[in-house]
């Protein structure tokens, strides 16, 4: 019996770099001491106070069906957070609570794209983007953000791809994998293209609490964009709640209404006790988010020190997020070849740039997700390894 083409072609674009990650995990399971700098998982766990609230809410009876759009108090809190950051009036009617940011990205494409329509996204990209678009029945169309431009997307390149017809454009700032924060100039240029080409914009802003240089600007805040933008957010990165699977989509009330209908037929909402915990966490304010982000800010400074004064690796300026993007082209190797050899010889696991699209070829992504001294030592070994390849 045949399976659907939708499911069998979901990830038809090679392994996405997961082969190396899985090999590193297998080495660790076999007793090899591997330093993992691969996935964006905090080295701290969810704050026990948040877990206490989750436990209290569960014992208080919040274990049945919760409101499918999200409990009103949480939707209000998310709306207030987004309004404060963007200056755009936002109410609970603009908010849908989702089982994590990934669910929000999928639901957004389901809402905006008909089967067979083109859906644009920026390359380099988070590894799930093409599969998410295919899962919604749309056609993934990458737009390269070139390293020579500091991985800032060029609106002219977006316009050229959109000229072939498209329903949506997905952007991500602060960016995974590059650590780049899109400038106001970049976002205004993107907004101009979106208005001219009648594109919906899906803005993945899950790293909005991790900004090291400048400030995060949501494209929703730019004139004329609130009515054509869906913002996807999450508690995963801001509050180290990756396993709790809770996020949101913020957009025009009409679109959110249809997405609530979609949720009724797919996820049927998010567990009430997890929503209560998320509400508690958000009400702790910006200081709590800064505490979660602090280790990555420290490790960024460690990286700047370790990488200074050498010429084997070029650091893409890390303006936000929990990653470093390193240009390894001076070694004459591909990102994949470099990462494989680094794992074999130094037992250090990083993600090859090619995992995140063609635009990141010749780069590697390093996750700043281990203890400070171990992170610094691993970077020193990485530099020595790179210099030995020249």
Write a structural description.
This protein has helices spanning 5-8, 18-29, 48-59, 72-86, 101-112, 129-135, 155-162, 184-196, 253-264, 272-283, 286-307, 335-346, 372-389, and strands at residues 35-36, 95-98, 118-123, 139-144, 168-172, 200-204, 229-234, 247-250, 314-315, 323-327, 348-349, 351-352, 363-367. It has 390 residues and is an alpha/beta fold. The strands form three sheets. The chain has a seven-stranded mixed beta sheet with strand order 2-8-7-6-5-3-4, with helices on both faces. The chain has a four-stranded antiparallel beta sheet with strand order 9-10-13-12. The N and C termini lie far apart (53 Å).
Secondary structure blueprint with pairings:
Layout: H1 5-8, H2 18-29, E1 35-36, H3 48-59, H4 72-86, E2 95-98, H5 101-112, E3 118-123, H6 129-135, E4 139-144, H7 155-162, E5 168-172, H8 184-196, E6 200-204, E7 229-234, E8 247-250, H9 253-264, H10 272-283, H11 286-307, E9 314-315, E10 323-327, H12 335-346, E11 348-349, E12 351-352, E13 363-367, H13 372-389
Parallel strand pairs: 1-11, 3-4, 3-5, 5-6, 6-7
Antiparallel strand pairs: 2-8, 7-8, 9-10, 10-13, 12-13
Helix pairs in contact: 3-10, 4-10, 5-6, 5-9, 7-8, 11-13
């Amino acid at each position: 019996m045949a399976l659907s083409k939708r499911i069998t072609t979901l990830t038809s674009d090679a392994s996405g770099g997961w082969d190396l990650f899985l090999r590193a995990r297998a080495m660790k399971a076999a007793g090899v001491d591997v330093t993992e700098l691969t996935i964006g998982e905090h080295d701290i766990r969810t704050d026990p106070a948040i877990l206490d609230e989750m436990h209290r809410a569960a014992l208080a009876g919040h274990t049945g069906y919760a409101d499918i759009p999200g409990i009103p108090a949480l939707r209000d809190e998310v709306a207030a957070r987004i309004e404060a950051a963007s200056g755009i009036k936002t109410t609970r009617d603009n908010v849908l609570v989702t089982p994590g940011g990934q669910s929000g990205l999928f639901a957004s494409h389901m809402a905006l794209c008909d089967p067979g329509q083109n859906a644009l996204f920026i390359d380099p990209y988070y590894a799930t983007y093409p599969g998410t678009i295919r899962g919604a029945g749309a056609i993934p169309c990458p737009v390269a953000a070139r390293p020579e431009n500091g991985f800032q997307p060029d609106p002219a390149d977006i316009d050229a791809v959109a000229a072939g017809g498209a329903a949506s454009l997905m952007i991500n700032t602060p960016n995974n994998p590059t650590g780049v924060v899109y400038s106001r100039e970049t976002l205004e240029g993107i907004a101009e293209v979106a208005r001219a080409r009648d594109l919906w914009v899906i803005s993945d802003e899950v790293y909005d609490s991790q900004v090291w240089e400048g400030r995060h600007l949501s494209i929703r805040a730019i004139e004329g964009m609130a009515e054509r933008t869906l913002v996807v957010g999450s508690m995963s990165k801001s509050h180290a709640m990756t396993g709790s699977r809770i996020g949101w989509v913020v957009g025009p009330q009409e679109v959110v209404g249809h997405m609530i209908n979609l949720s009724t037929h797919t996820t049927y909402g998010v567990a009430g006790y997890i929503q209560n915990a998320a509400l508690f966490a958000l009400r702790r304010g910006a200081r709590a988010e800064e505490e979660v982000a602090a280790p990555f800010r420290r490790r960024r400074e460690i990286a700047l020190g370790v990488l200074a004064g050498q010429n084997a690796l070029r650091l893409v300026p890390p303006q936000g997020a929990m990653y470093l993007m390193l240009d390894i082209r001076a070694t004459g190797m591909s990102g994949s070849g470099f990462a494989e050899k680094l794992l074999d010889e130094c037992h250090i696991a990083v993600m090859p740039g090619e995992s995140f699209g063609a635009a990141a070829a010749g780069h590697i992504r390093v996750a700043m997700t281990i203890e400070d001294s171990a992170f610094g030592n691993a970077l020193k070994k990485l530099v020595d390894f790179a210099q030995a390849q020249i």
